[in-house]
Automatic annotation (TrEMBL):
Stretches assigned to the Protein kinase domain: 63-315
High-level lineage: Eukaryota, Metazoa, Cnidaria, Anthozoa, Octocorallia
ATP-binding among keywords: yes
Origin species: Paramuricea clavata
Pfam families referenced in this protein's UniProt entry, alphabetically: PK_Tyr_Ser-Thr
Name of the featured protein: dual-specificity kinase
Record-stated family: Belongs to the protein kinase superfamily. TKL Ser/Thr protein kinase family.
ATP-binding keyword on record: yes
One Gene Ontology cellular component: cytoplasm
Cofactor: Mn(2+); Mg(2+)
InterPro entries registered for this protein in UniProt: Actin_reg-Ser/Thr_kinase, Kinase-like_dom_sf, Prot_kinase_dom, Protein_kinase_ATP_BS, Ser-Thr/Tyr_kinase_cat_dom, Tyr_kinase_AS, Tyr_kinase_cat_dom
GO annotation, biological process: actin cytoskeleton organization
Length: 359
């Protein structure tokens, strides 16, 4: 392809392959820090889980062999093997029964999500303590572990491919009206497919409906990946996920931990671009520029996920700098000279045009 070739990117995705539901599939503003004394009728809840998007099954704990592989503040993660079939999957549990409503919300949401870069819902596990989430098992582990493992070869093409996978999964999530709120490298899982490593977005325990302009959401998430507006307790929307993605890109680019000691930050909780650039001199400029754009302080200047996905796809397919066409906002001042950061938000936002799975 000639160097001056151009590709036109529309800031919009086609409607995802999901059907609208009259019931709420995700809580408005879930918080794991609040006790919930409301009891859950497990039998009724299981009957209400939709079957039209994912095929899933009900398991009982006594039919599974469990191996603990993760220990979180709110719950534990187990590798589970079906004693009869040998099938392997993962069980996510809640440590406190008072969090069962949160678990049910995550189950209901995941049952309605279906995308190659979203962790696949396989069913539920029942025992005397309640109901637990079953998902596919990703044998490589999480992205944070892969990035920091010096024994793991990560050529730039693979790093961009993993970044592309995440952006596709998140573009889908936003398109169906859901904000993740805890997007972090530890919540991106890696499997080894026939075409190499694949990344999927996981852990939807804090996911919420994309809020209206007037609604202020609670401060939740993992601090190192939090957008500045969340840390300031300001009103925020789905663009906080884009900032979190930018920090993940910095981790991938530098193969570093997400802490401010390794990814330098400004006094305003943003990315210190000049200092970080000095640490990653060998990075392809387009890839670094994308990270910078996603970490902008102005939430409305961060490129939406469907645009970042197409940007990365073009680079992966051609190896060329992407000369994106689109309206430029001449009044906006950013640290980015690349066209991806100079788009103007469309009047119809990506979260409003496709079909939703939440209301």
């Amino acid at each position: 392809m000639a160097e001056n070739s151009e590709i036109r990117l529309e800031c919009r995705l086609s409607a995802p392959d999901v059907e609208e539901d009259t019931e709420t599939d995700v809580l408005d503003d879930p918080s794991p820090y609040e006790s919930d004394t409301e009891e859950v009728d497990i039998d009724s809840f299981v009957k209400s889980i939709p079957h039209d998007v994912n095929d899933w099954e009900i398991y009982h704990a006594d039919s599974l062999t469990l191996e603990k592989i993760g220990d979180g503040f709110f719950g534990d993660i187990y590798k589970a093997t079906d004693s009869k079939t040998g099938k392997i999957f993962v069980i996510k549990t809640m440590k406190k029964a008072t969090k069962m409503k949160l678990m049910c919300a995550e189950i209901r949401l995941m049952a309605r999500l279906k995308h190659p870069n979203i962790l696949r819902f396989l069913g539920v596990c029942l025992d005397t303590s309640g109901i637990h989430l079953l998902t596919e098992y990703m044998e490589i582990g999480n992205l944070e572990e892969v990035v920091e493992d010096s024994r793991e070869p990560l050529p730039w093409s693979l790093r961009m491919k993993l970044a592309h996978d995440i952006s596709k999964g998140m573009a889908y999530l936003h398109s169906v009206g859901v904000i993740h709120r805890d997007l972090a490298s530890k919540n991106v899982l890696i499997s080894n497919e026939s075409n190499g490593y694949t990344a999927v977005v996981a852990d939807f325990g804090l996911a919420a409906k994309i809020p209206s302009r007037k609604k202020k959401l609670k401060v939740v998430g993992s601090p190192y990946w939090m957008a500045p507006e969340v840390l300031r307790h300001d009103q925020y929307n789905e663009t906080v996920d884009i900032f979190s993605y930018g920090i993940i890109l910095c981790e991938i680019i530098g193969r570093v931990h997400s802490s401010p000691e390794e990814i330098p930050r400004t006094n305003h909780f943003g990315l210190d671009v000049d200092k970080f650039r000095e640490l990653v001199l060998g990075c392809p400029p387009e890839f670094l520029q994308l990270a910078v754009c996603c970490c902008q302080l102005d939430p409305q200047s961060r490129p939406p996920f469907e645009l970042t996905a197409r940007f990365l796809e073009y680079i992966l397919n051609t190896g060329l700098t992407l000369p994106m066409e689109g309206r430029r906002n001449k009044k906006r001042s950013t640290h980015c000279s690349n066209a991806i950061c100079m788009y103007e938000s469309p009047s119809s936002s990506p979260s409003s045009s496709p079909s939703k799975i939440v209301r």
